[in-house]
Write a structure and sequence with these properties.
Pfam family, one: DUF1489
InterPro entries: UCP032025
Organism: Sorlinia euscelidii
CATH topology: Archaeosine Trna-guanine Transglycosylase, Chain: A, domain 4
Order of helices and strands: EHEEEEEEEHH
Number of domains: 1
Distance between the termini: 26 Å
Oligomer: single chain
Number of strands: 8
Protein name: Lysophospholipase
Largest sheet: 8 strands, mixed
CATH architecture: Roll
Structural class: alpha+beta
Helix content: 10-25%
Amino acid sequence: MLHLIKLTPGCANVEELAQRVREGDRHDGLHVIYTRTQPKRADEIAGKGSIYRVIAGFVAARQSIIRFKPHTRHDGQEGTMILVAPEVISVQPRPMRPFQGWRYYKPEDAPPDLTARDENLLHAMPTHLRKALTELCLL
């Protein structure tokens, strides 16, 4: 099993990502993330792994990847749809610098999910304090 890490540009927080997912494109009832190419290791991910989302410089959430499906982009070029479960799961925030495309996570390297209690405490905290504590690896 393997996971993907992908930037979520223009998204300020996990709540905004969840809103985008609720309002976003669907295919076969699943949320769609469009990308130009299919990951070379897609067989290790589909149905088993997740896509971890980098939001405002932190790995902050994940969605389970159901499958990959080819599609034709608006410009006529071939692309890939990453079909993911609609549930957005908050994870323990982890700093991540910007990168292009995606990266892979081995399961043992992926940040753990937050419990509902952890998530409530985290979101009750002012953003600047949450960011500072995360950067210091105290969250």
